Every structure is written in C-alpha cells, then in structure tokens.
Amino acid sequence: MELRQVVGNTWVAEASTALIGIYRINRRDVILLDTGIARRDRDGLTALLEEHGMVPRGIICSHAHYDHTGNAAFLRRRYGALIAAQLIEAGIGASPESYRANYIPLTYAQCYTYFAEDCFPTDVIIQPRDSSINFCGADFRILQLPGHAAGQIGVITPDNVAYLADSLMGPDIMALAKLPTAMYVARDLMTKASLRDLRCEAYILAHKDVLFDLEEIIERNITFTQERARCVLDCLENGMTLSQWLMVFSKHVGFRTQDEFKLSIIHRNFTNFVAYLQDAGHVSVWRDSCEKRYTRT
C-alpha cells in the first residue's frame, strides 16, 4: 500500500478499491478517514502504519459501507483508536442486523457472513447538523453529504483538504460504472450540486482520485446520474414487474455476475433508481394481486 502526500499533513493511502485519508497530528499520531475493506486491505494498511511509525489515534467513518469501515473495529482493538461517525451511519454500522439497512436484498444470515468484521462501535457521534468536530485534538470541518448513503459525511482537514467519500466518482470509476450507488438519488444529486460552492486546497474522492478543481467532475457526475436514470426508464415497458424491468436493464448494460453479494448491490441500486423515477412522477405503480407493476406516466 502506497502513502502519498496531498497537502501539508494530509495524506492518502491507496487501498485496493479506495483511497484512505490520513491526517498526521504529529509525526507519530494520525487520524484515518475511513479504513478500507477488511479482507483485502487489512494487512497492507497495518504494514503501512508500522513501516511509517504511525499510530491511528482516531478514525472518522464517512458512511457504513463495507469498503469504508472494514477495518475500523480491528484498528480500535489493535491501537485503541477512537471511532467517530455520523448518527445514522453509527447506528447502521453497529451490528450485522442494522448493517442490512444498506444491503436490504441480503438475508439475515448473509449479513452475518458478509459484515461481521465490518461492524464497529462508535465512540463519538456526529449529529446530522454538525459542521465541525474537535477530534483527538484536531479541528475538522464536517460536510453533511447524504444521498449515496443516508448519513454520509465528508471531512475537511486542518490543511483545507476535503475528503468527499463517495459523493463524487472520478473519471475512471465513472467510465466503468453501470449504475451508481445512491440510497436517495434525488438527495444525492442535491449533494453533488452543493459541492459547487466548496473551496478547498484539494479534494480526495474515495474512488480514487485527488483533484485540485471540482467544477468539471461535479457536472460530469450529475449528468451521468441523470443519464443512468433515463436509461433505467427507457428499459421499462408498461406493465412490467420490478424483476422483469431489472432483467431488461441488466441485459442492456451488460451485468454479468452470479455472485450473491454483487447481485444484491445491483438489485438495491436499481430499486433506488426506480424509487427516484416514481418520486419524480416518471412512473406510476399499480398492483396485480400482491405484485407491483410499473407504467410510464
């Protein structure tokens, strides 16, 4: 795992699928912004910390997705690191049962299989209206960035570097994405638009870029999400069930997997886009016995 300086005391470690933000309080003590995936990043992250003589005193979790919180509880046990998280995400991350809020298509037993290591106890709760936090002796600004996840936050370090978690995708990730993850698509679009007013020295996108200007990438993200919504709508033939609609969309964009976990994410993301289209008045729902059927309006 590679360590790269961004600005001043703000660094990033390049994990398997994401950048982990690191703020150096001093030469030894650090605060991590997210922690990567349990099974894929733990050894590399631990080796990097040991190699550079860094001890995590705190972890700020942006949201309770497995690729961000996978090593939080482990680092708390190993180093005594305190964990801070926004109220909603702290509740979701508390146990496999509550973690299912972000992965509803999975069963109770599957949530224990997939997420037992990813759950974490939260020591410091960040309230939904908080705009700053003093954590482990350092002052951070908090950006409330709901949409991708219900309580997602971003963090601005004392170097005026913004860690934006998953509120924006970088160009390479966008080119590969068939359907972006957003619990609330409308709110996610509002969050993206709000970042137009942000002025920082640098911007860390978790997947997987460090940028020094956001203007172009914000507009590309908004356009991409809107185009994906239109693509979902274009795949609807009146009277389709959700399963029929998802099958047509999957063939159209080329989803090819038999992995139960990946399928659960596809189903979740598609369902969230359908809810967005319904709220926006583009589709209506009627019931055929106990089954929902969808029609364009």
Description:
The model has no long low-confidence stretch (mean pLDDT 96). It is built from eleven helices and 16 strands. The protein has two domains: 2-225, 4-Layer Sandwich (Metallo-beta-lactamase, Chain A); 235-296, no CATH class. The protein is globular. The longest helix is centred in the C-terminal third of the chain and has 20 residues, at 215-234. The chain is α+β, with helices and mostly antiparallel strands. A seven-stranded mixed sheet has the order 1-2-3-4-5-6-7. A six-stranded mixed sheet has the order 8-9-10-11-12-13, with no helix packed on it. The N and C termini lie far apart (50 Å). 38% of the residues lie in helices and 26% in strands. The protein has helices at residues 38-51, 66-69, 72-79, 87-92, 96-99, 108-115, 171-176, 185-194, 215-234, 242-253, 260-279; strands at residues 2-7, 10-14, 19-24, 29-33, 55-61, 82-86, 124-126, 132-135, 138-144, 153-156, 161-163, 202-205, 209-211, 240-241, 283-288, 291-296.
In one word, what is the shape?
Answer: globular
Structural class: alpha+beta
Main pleated sheet: 7 strands, mixed
Measured distance between first and last alpha carbons: 50 Å
Please state how the strands of the largest beta sheet are arranged side by side. 1-2-3-4-5-6-7
Q: Spans with pLDDT under 50 lasting ≥5 residues?
A: none
> How would you spell out the order of helices and strands?
EEEEHEHHEHHHEEEEEHHEEHEHHEE
Give the number of helices. 11
Radius of gyration: 19 Å
Question: What is the CATH architecture term of the largest domain?
Answer: 4-Layer Sandwich
Q: Kindly estimate the percentage of residues that lie in beta strands according to DSSP.
A: 25-35%
Full CATH superfamily name of the largest domain: Ribonuclease Z/Hydroxyacylglutathione hydrolase-like
Could you name the CATH class of the largest domain? Alpha Beta
Number of domains: 2
Helical content stands at 25-40%
Please report the total strand number as a whole number: 16
Give the integer mean of the pLDDT values: 96
Find the CATH topology of the largest domain.
Metallo-beta-lactamase, Chain A
